[in-house]
Structures are given as C-alpha cells and as structure tokens.
Amino acid sequence: MQSYVPVISSTGKPLMPTTNRKANRLIEKGRATRRFDRGLFYIRLIDRADGYTQPIVIGIDPGSKKEAFTAKAAAHTYLNVQADAVTWVSDAEETSTTMRRGRRGRKTPYRAMRTNRRQGQFKLPPSTRARWGWKLRLCGWLARYYPISLFVVEDIAAITKSGKRRWNASFSPLEVGKAWFYAELGKLAAVETRKGYETKALRDQLGLKKSKQKLSDSFAAHCVDSWVLANASVGGHVAPDNINIVYLVPLRFHRRQLHMLQPAKGGIRKPYGGTRSLGFKRGSWVKHPKHGVRYVGGTTAGSISLHRMQDGVRIAKVKPETVTFLCTAAWRTKKGERHSAVA
C-alpha cells in the first residue's frame, strides 16, 4: 500500500503530496529538505514556489471519546488520523472550583473576585471550548500541509428535553460548541455537514461495516466514516485505498495548579503543575542518545522526565543538557494496527 508525503513549496504553500520514493529522490538531488512536525513527515521544496493543486477534502467524524479525520483527493487517500478526544476539562473545573471555595473559607490570602469583564460577549464553557478547540487545532495542522478545499463534517445533534421550546437548543453545550467550530472552520476552507443517517447510507452503499468497538484502533472504528464523508464529496473510489492511520493523543497540562492539592507534613504543599520544565515547554519532543525520541514531562531536583510516546509512561529522569530539542507539541503519537507517514 503506497504512502504519501506532504509537500510544501519554498514560500510555505501546501502542494499536492508525493510518494515516498519521489520525495527521497528530490532530497537526494538537493531540491527538497526533510522536515517533521509533531509526528508528520513532509518535505519542503527549495526551487519551487508554486504548483498545480487538486481539490483535497477533509472528512471529519467527531466523537465523545475518539474522532477521525481523513485527507482525500479523487486519486488517492493521503492521510487518516484517529485522535483521542479531550475529556478531562469538566472534572478539572469542578476540582478547581472546590479548591477555590475552600481557600475563601479559610484565613488564606486570595485574589478578590473580579467583575465580569466579558459580560455580553460570546463565551464558550471551558469543557466545550477544549473539546471543539482540539478539533479545530487538528484541522489547522492539516491545513498547513494539504491544499484543502472543503471540510465535510458529520453533524451531531443534542437531544433537548423540552422539545416545545425552540430556544432550549441554544443552551446545549454541544450545539453551541459545534456552531462555534463551524464558524471558525469556515475561515480555513468551505464547510459542508451531513447527518448521521446520511453517513450510514453512504457507508451501506459501498458495503462498508462500522465496528461496534468504539475504543479500538481499527480503521472500521471511526476512520471508515471520515473516509466515506470525504469520498462522497470528492469521489474516486468504491473501497478504501489507504487504511493506514496516524494516532494522536492530546497531552494534559496542569497550567495553573502550581502545587499539590493536599499539603504534606508541616503544611507544605509540594510544587506541581506549570508548563515549563527547566527551559523546556512540557510536551516538547526531544531526542536522547540512549532513550531516543521522547516527550518532556515534569521536573525533579534539576532533572526532566522523559515519557514514552506509545503510552505516556515515564521512562527516565535526565539532565536537560543531555537531550536535543526537536519541537513543541500538545500531543503524542502512538502506534496502532497500521501506521503511515509518521516520524
């Protein structure tokens, strides 16, 4: 099964992807340079500023636990992405509220409550903003390397309890979140939506089956729907021509929790949280001569923690001068059943 490499012009414009063999040939001739961006391998041309592009459609299958993205043109399927959803913000906000109220009930210095400076402005709940913002960041990431002409999204709907009141739909976090997502996504390219029953009809028409194992890493779990959505708009195939998948897992950062929630002996709270580890932004990808490519976690006694990409487990504590910085990242990659175009 042929894999494809994204191509960027010398001016930063995304061009049509090419095969691995042709990309290696361009690199050997000195006409392109090898580049990596948070798991995606691509090449940047040195002597070409523009080029002909074909329509590439991104199919998006949103979900509560997993979601899928497919980049497809009429001739080829270039990339399938399965990403874990951001699910922890609601619980984190509840914990933050509990701790803040506890501080205000004790003789503890705290910041006085501010007036609502965003009154009358459009504001998303934190958990809704995090969920849909994660999808938008991935779409923006793909738009940097593929000449996208259209986003096709499976339109999910919230079931409101009071069907007689039309205004009740606007109070659903899901409805508000997806409306914001569609508006922001439209700034990147045109947006088209399809209902869930339409996706199923397209899937049945091609004789494709969707797995009931929603948490699995198989193509049939989620990417089959994103592929069907893209194929329905751009055409070209009656069966998936590329079932390789890039798996992305968002990293959780404790940005404002600067110490442990519960004090240790002597009433001292140990440092915890933050986004910096001895000069590195947490989540950054680094290369260690012994442990290879890992990402940066916390810090202890002058050392930084290195974590494994596959499952996020900490494998070592090393001095910061022993690693080579690669890039900042808010996610890690992992290997599933199939893997394609991953660094």
Summarize the structure.
The chain is α+β, with helices and mostly antiparallel strands and 343 residues long. The chain has helices at 20-28, 89-104, 126-143, 173-185, 196-205, 223-234; strands spanning 4-8, 14-19, 32-37, 40-45, 56-61, 66-72, 77-84, 148-155, 190-195, 246-250, 276-277, 280-281, 285-288, 292-300, 303-307, 314-318, 324-327, 331-334. It has three domains: 1-52, no CATH class; 54-104 and 124-250, YqgF/RNase H-like domain (Nucleotidyltransferase, domain 5), CATH 3.30.420.140; 253-330, Roll (SH3 type barrels).
Protein architecture, described:
The chain is α+β, with helices and mostly antiparallel strands. It has 3 domains: 1-52, no CATH class; 54-104 and 124-250, 2-Layer Sandwich (Nucleotidyltransferase, domain 5); 253-330, SH3 type barrels (Roll), CATH 2.30.30. Helices cover 23% and strands 29% of the residues. The chain has helices spanning 20-28, 89-104, 126-143, 173-185, 196-205, 223-234; strands at residues 4-8, 14-19, 32-37, 40-45, 56-61, 66-72, 77-84, 148-155, 190-195, 246-250, 276-277, 280-281, 285-288, 292-300, 303-307, 314-318, 324-327, 331-334. The strands form 4 sheets. Strands 9-8-5-6-7-10-18 form a 7-stranded mixed beta sheet. It has a 5-stranded antiparallel beta sheet with strand order 16-15-14-13-17, with no helix packed on it. Mean pLDDT is 89; it is low at 338-343.
